[in-house]
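Schema walk-through. Below, the input block comes first and the output block second. Nothing else is stored per chain. Lengths vary across the set, and this one has 199 residues.
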Amino acid sequence: MSAAHLFEDFGEQKSKPADAVAMPIEMVEDQKLEAFEKGYQAGWEDAVAAQSETQGFVSSGLASSLQDASFEYHELRATMTATVETVIKSVTDIVLPKAARASLGAHVREKAQDMARVSLDKRVEIAVAPENEAAVRSVLNDDIPDPFLLVSDNLLAPSQVVLRTEQTEAEIDLDRTVADISAAVTSFFEAQTFEVNDG
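--- output ---
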């Protein structure tokens, strides 16, 4: 067996096929550049498609997380509002009226002193309900100095005090003040409940 078929024969010149045409170098370079551009464009489109898919996944995950957080926020807010409302209403319904009545004398003294400063040397009449006369007298230290005059008025409710001078009159009405505060608190919590329910 001969090994001649394994080696190239340099003795004979083989002719090139007739259909193989030599191409100018510029055309070859243009074809290479065109092939590179097509490959680059295909790679770019794949990268954009992958990024869009990732962005869509992240966006949907973020939207879902934000919806969950919003729901939890509104749920927590509704619970906190209900809890705070109970406490505040207890304060305005129970504690505030008692505190207001306990401080009635101090309110009267402060308002009467303000009126006395404004109407120098004029008598300041302090009209109270008969059941409050002793409490107001004790706050004014039993000895009511001039220009103050403490009088009992049967037309006044226990939560009312009227301070009068010759030119002015001022009323302290604790029940109305407490009712105004309670109404403001109720209005606030109704608005909060509406806001929470409306989302």
